[in-house]
Write a structure and sequence with these properties.
The complex is a heterodimer of chains A (382) and B (135). Chain A is built from 16 helices and eleven strands. Chain A is of the alpha/beta class. Chain A has a single domain, classed as Peroxisomal Thiolase, Chain A, domain 1. Chain A starts with a strand and ends with a strand. The longest helix of chain B is centred in the N-terminal third of the chain and has 11 residues. Chain B has 135 residues and is mainly β. Chain B has one helix and seven strands, in the order αβββββββ. Chain B folds into two domains: 51 residues, no CATH class; 75 residues, OB fold (Dihydrolipoamide Acetyltransferase, E2P) (Beta Barrel). The radius of gyration of chain B is 15 Å and the shape is globular. Helices cover 8% and strands 39% of the residues of chain B. In chain B, the strands form two sheets. Chain B has a five-stranded antiparallel sheet, with no helix packed on it. Classes of the chains: A alpha/beta (382), B mainly beta (135). Chains A and B meet through α6, α7, β5 and α11 of A and α1, β3, β4 and β5 of B.
Chain lengths: 382, 135
């Protein structure tokens, strides 16, 4: 039995929402249900990522808010972006086994109200607090800057190449209503952005915002009876590096890379496609370097050739491979790639107007949640 | 000397943190390997690499090479603002095979592959390991 994504929804996206996170999550869920043409009463399964959601917006609270009379299936899967993109793996298993028929996936984040912002989650780790913070090895940009520096040593990395990733995100965002960073970023503006940790600049870093996202999965059979064209889950997989999350940024045996290599191989294999068949890629882009690493890990570019790919082949509108066609985490919103899932669904439905990638039939979505990584292949219903 | 470093105290909740920082206070670099399999463990999980709870702390010479580094310019940790720009690095220390050690470099022009050696400096009322270019 195959399953399909039948509804996607996002809350209003802002730097500071001025209302509770639960309200943003509920807004995203209501919009996803509306998009699917389903009522809350038809939801009988919930899948959330396993890091913050269980504390901030737990399933019991959301189920009560939706007045779900019965909730036979609830699950947490993986971590952060990996859980949010990998959730269809669990939803599919639940639907195939009869545990649930309509599964809701949701996630919200409110960094405006988080003490210490996005970095704080790492300060809570006792090992990092003992062995990293005293030395100033702190902040995700620092971790990824160190990776980028090693990449530069092994393969070469020029500012123009990082600028190509940041610039493409702005070009896509400029064509996407609601995206937070829509101003174009020519090379001179990129180079004028301050370095935060060499070689990464402020504009190499993702957004910080208040936003929520939700999507709904049901069987492909049921999806075909709904109003909108189904978007099929062709393949989905989660993979993890063989280290703890505390160790990941320093001890990962494959330091220059992500577990995308494993998760994408499995997900693409399930779908019976290769990277060459992928029309659009919505890749977890917490930093510009992360996009380059995944292009190599997945096989869109050869080893060490991702930086050349983004500049020479192009990932912007009309590029060889349109990547993050809404602007991604860099320029659209920071919902840990929940927005990437929503964008892929909209593209495959042909709903994106000026930003529509013509003939898009196969999308690859990825999510990183240290030390895990998820790959999700979505396709039109052929 | 890196003025401003030493402003962030290590959290000593974990047993491993207390052993490591006591070692620094005594002028020694102590790092753990799993007593069961001999693997270097950084950061140690309390239960050990083999989950038998045994860690074997060894003194190391504090020399090695720069695996990667970055110059931090943004005050991600406001307490360390006075120390910016600050060069942080991952080091491959002699004798610890594949393990990477997080360290501060006091080197004007760092590069990957550079040989470095540990000094213990008194900074902000704290004994801090800092790595300089090896002579």
């Amino acid at each position: 039995m195959s399953v399909a994504v039948v509804g996607v929804g996002e809350s209003d996206i802002s730097r500071a929402a001025g209302k509770p996170l639960g309200a943003l999550v509920r807004q995203a869920i209501d919009r996803a249900l509306d998009d699917a043409g389903l009522s809350a009463a038809q939801v009988d399964g919930l899948v959330i990522e396993g890091m913050g959601t269980a504390r901030h917006t737990p399933t019991d609270e959301v189920a009560a808010s939706l007045r779900l009379a019965s909730r036979p299936f609830s699950a947490q899967v993986s971590i952060a972006g990996a859980g949010l993109v990998g959730a269809p793996e669990i939803a599919r298993a639940a639907i195939e086994s009869g545990l649930a028929s309509v599964v809701l996936v949701y996630f919200g984040i409110q960094l405006s109200a988080t003490k210490g912002g996005a970095y704080a989650v790492h300060a809570e780790d006792p090992m990092k607090a003992a062995f990293e913070l005293p030395f100033g090895f702190y902040g995700q940009a620092v971790y990824f800057a160190a990776v980028a520096q090693r990449y530069a040593f092994e393969h070469g990395l020029r500012p123009e190449q990082l600028a190509a990733v940041a610039g493409a995100a702005r070009q896509h965002a400029a064509r996407t209503p609601g995206a937070l960073r829509q101003q174009l970023l020519p090379l001179e503006d990129y180079l004028a952005s301050p370095l935060v940790a060499d070689p990464l600049r402020k504009v190499d870093c993702c957004l910080s915002n208040d936003a929520a996202v939700a999507y709904i999965i049901t069987s492909a059979e049921r999806a075909r009876d709904l109003a909108k064209a189904p978007v099929l889950v062709g393949g989905v997989a989660i993979s993890g590096a063989p280290v703890t999350s505390a160790q990941y940024f320093t001890q990962n045996p494959r330091y220059v890379g992500t577990p995308a290599r494993e998760s994408s191989r499995i997900a693409l294999g399930q779908a019976g496609v290769t990277p060459a068949d992928v029309d659009i890629a919505e890749l977890y882009d917490c930093f510009t370097i992360t996009t380059i690493l995944q292009l190599e890990d997945i096989g869109f570019a050869g080893p060490g050739e991702g930086a050349d790919f983004v500049l020479d082949q192009g990932i912007g509108p009309g590029g060889a491979l349109p990547v993050n066609t809404h602007g991604g985490l860099l320029a659209h919103s920071y919902t840990l790639a929940g927005n990437h899932v929503a964008e892929a669904v909209r593209q495959l439905r042909g709903e994106r107007g000026d930003a529509q990638v013509q003939g898009a039939e196969v999308a690859l979505v990825t999510g990183l949640g240290i030390p895990d990584h998820a790959s999700l292949v979505l396709t039109v219903d052929r | 000397m890196i003025n401003g470093l030493g402003a962030v105290a290590p959290t000593l909740d974990a047993q491993a943190a207390r052993v490591f920082w006591q070692g620094i206070n005594d002028g020694k670099l102590l790092l753990p390997r799993c007593a069961g399999c001999g693997r270097w463990q950084w950061y140690p999980v309390e239960s050990g690499a083999c989950h038998d709870g045994e860690l074997d702390w060894q003194e190391l010479p504090g020399t090695g090479v720069v695996f990667t580094f970055t110059v931090v310019r943004h005050p991600f940790l406001p307490e360390l603002s006075a120390a910016l720009p600050l060069t942080v690095a991952l080091l491959q220390l002699d004798g610890t095979e594949q393990m990477r050690f997080v360290a501060v470099l006091d080197v004007p022009a760092p590069s990957i592959g550079m040989r470095v050696a540990m000094q213990i400096q008194q900074l902000g009322g704290r004994q801090m390991p800092v790595f300089v270019e090896a002579g």
